[in-house]
Design brief:
The structure is a homodimer. Helices cover 41% and strands 20% of the residues of chain A. A 7-stranded parallel beta sheet of chain A has the order 10-9-11-8-7-12-13, with helices on both faces.
């Protein structure tokens, strides 16, 4: 496929996006259900295509190019496909993120301003090798009325192609072109340059990859590059609680971005807290490193300066003793990635200081960092996690794939009436009301 | 000032931003009031400095480099300073955009998630030659708890310097470094490169200038490059109303981005509507151009292809006859700048189609495009108008200078409890409640 073709596809998505804004909730949900049905009906062919990817992946594994984990993630099965179909059906069941009136304000008699939730437009996505990612991203985009450009990992190319075709065939009632697939690496660069046509980019993958995207496009990017999260055990902590939280935050699932990477311990409780904590971690095979003051109390390896800026993503943890709450805040400000930070303390004022002072998407009091997740937050399906501060922050649900539009209903209103010497004042009164064309609510 | 100094200033702003998040509403409002007082107390020196700018401006005017309008905008007076001080006091009076709990959700018993409005952090601004712009931007930033980098036009350098000094001296109670001034052009480029330190850019000025900023930074930009707005007179329009709206949208104040640039007229009403409309515009010295079908009815100059993409910003207007509502939508989609579009019609369904189909920040029914403005919308002081779709759209008030943070209050909650075979289900119940550290609301 040439880059001209990639450009063409983005243009098609752009046209479809305009029509999609007029597609009803029912039509979108029907289309989602027919995607689910089609995946089940087409399972034999999908598994056959997936077989090709897995075979190629196993060759790469033997050649030492791929890891076993990557090959495992590639693999689909009948039951995996069923759960993918279920996921798509559950997206159909979610509350419609579109059309809601977010606020209504009377500006003057018969002049009413409504803020209405609408799709963003065209969303460009680049994602990792799990073939279910393609289906999930397409489903969330459709639900939120957005056109989507899908670029999956080349390792999953056979699976992605047939899943994409299945989706397109199942959604003939939806404006043609709403979902576009691109496959070659160069086409990603074509996409990155189309900032007039693509409204938002959602890359998923390694930190390096997301950084590359951010550095090479003018399109807004929603994503996160790193998750360096901390748990701070305060002088006023319930130490039993602290031990359980710090353990859960690392061990419950260490490979994810909301797992803790550095444990900070107030010096007043270090001697009492560390021995038991370290024993518990070591029991779970967590590889520990500590600074000098940690090593005065327990026998662990020494940290280097790099440890404080490292996302281990594994059963590894660095520990540091700090002199004060202020020191903990300073350390996190210097080394955190604005993702999720947790304090364990029984002192509400100290918790408040920690939570207000830190610039992070999520700040927790007496809870494990692992709660930072769209599903746990009750946002429905998670689109991604953002460590940026603009538009959407932290775990992002369907709402993050919407924006708003102002709808003003008037009755021949002129600005001249509200200007100059005899200016009529605005009333500016909020009211409860849903926009519907031509009907004024008050 | 060297670029190292510019870098240093941005770093100082970044430190101040973290402290600013803890400054109370009362402290911020007190500081705003002391800015207003200081401007009044310091008026003699400010006017003296301004004199220098005006003198230099007049020399440039004689040399044909500046326009009279630019020199006029530069000029301060005792009464202008008073109204600037009043503006700052009115910002102090506005509702606090910070600290509000935007939503509260129980995840499980004693585990409560709050979404809280917080400042964005460091905002970089570049603005035009009016010296009151510096004060307005500084006041809005302070009110919203953000640190700010101020870069004004060089024409106003003397005025800006003394206003900046006045502001800094008046806000000694606010964390030092919260407002930074940069002056040289090269320093703008230094700022554009500091995407790790600056969270948002708000450029104001010409379209070319805003485009330059967008093309040369990874920092999110909130602004608008063009305002090509349309009024569509539908076949079902009340033609008297249409005439008044189309007139107001152009003539009430033609130099601004929400003024209409192209009038679209449905062919069914063109013969009846155009003669009166054209006479009314010509009475007000509006220079008119029309396409062929317009010129079949009225005697105006011919449009060229460029007219449809031109923001006149003056008493000029292009007129086009369209065959249908769909044609009007198509024309606006091709040529509009996603700013503000208005339909005049008595048919609610047709209004709805127009408003839903167009991808613009503001879509109006039976009202002048000139209403698209933060003050008229009731947003309080306007930070700017955004034609982007991410974060803030259309007129942006103080809310656009905020983001949110998730605060989770737990009681030793672990993710392990909610995972695996005996997973406890989440309750995910929204409730009304304000976050306060350590106190759970339910």
């Amino acid at each position: 496929m040439s880059n001209t073709e990639a450009t063409e596809k983005v243009h098609e998505a752009q046209s479809a996006a305009l029509e999609l804004a007029n597609v009803s909730e029912e039509q979108r949900n029907d289309a989602l259900r027919s995607i689910a049905d089609a995946i089940e009906a087409n399972s034999e062919a999908i598994l056959e295509a997936n077989e090709n990817d897995v075979r190629a992946g196993e060759e790469m594994l033997e050649a030492g190019e791929y890891t076993q984990a990557l090959v495992d993630r590639l693999k689909l099965s009948e039951s995996k496909l069923e759960s993918i179909a279920e996921m798509v059906r559950s997206v159909a069941e979610q509350e419609d993120p579109l059309g809601k009136t977010l606020s209504a304000r009377e500006l003057d008699e018969d002049l009413e301003l409504y803020r209405v939730a609408v799709p963003i437009g065209v969303i460009g996505t680049v994602f990792e090798s799990r073939p279910d990612a393609l289906v999930q991203i397409a489903a969330l985009s459709l639900k939120s009325g957005n056109a989507v450009i899908l670029k999956g990992g080349s390792e999953a190319s056979h699976s992605n192609r047939i899943l994409y075709e299945t989706i397109v065939e199942a959604t003939e009632e939806i404006p043609t072109g709403w979902a576009q697939q691109i496959e070659a690496h160069e086409e990603v660069d074509t996409m990155l340059a189309m900032d007039d046509e693509i409204d938002l980019l959602m890359p998923r993958g390694s930190s390096e990859f997301v950084s590359y995207i951010q550095d090479n496009t003018q399109i807004p990017v929603l994503g996160h590059t790193e998750g360096i999260c901390h748990v701070f055990v305060d002088s006023e902590a319930d130490l039993e609680m602290a031990e359980e939280i710090a353990f859960d935050a690392k061990v419950q699932y260490p490979a994810v971005c909301n797992a803790v990477e550095t444990l900070l311990v107030h010096e007043a409780v270090a001697a009492e807290f560390l021995p038991g904590m370290v024993a518990k971690y070591e029991n779970a095979d967590v590889e520990l490193r500590g600074d000098e003051r940690v090593r005065e109390v327990v026998d662990v390896d020494a940290t280097t300066a790099e440890d404080w800026d490292t996302e281990y993503g594994d059963l590894e943890l660095s520990i540091k003793v700090v002199d004060s709450l202020a020191d903990a805040i300073e350390h996190i400000t210097a080394h955190g990635s604005k993702h999720t930070e947790s304090i364990v303390t029984e002192d509400a004022d100290r918790a408040g200081r920690f939570m207000r002072s830190l610039d992070a998407a999520s700040v927790f009091h007496n809870a494990s960092t692992r709660f930072a997740d769209g599903f746990r937050y009750g946002l429905g399906a998670e689109v991604g996690i953002s460590t940026g501060k603009i538009h959407a922050r932290g775990p992002v649900g369907l709402e993050g794939l919407t924006t708003y539009k102002y709808h003003l209903e008037g009755d021949g209103h002129l600005v001249a009436t509200y200007a100059g010497e005899d200016a009529v004042p605005f009333t500016h009164e909020e009211f409860d009301g849903e926009w519907s064309p031509g009907r004024r609510s008050r």
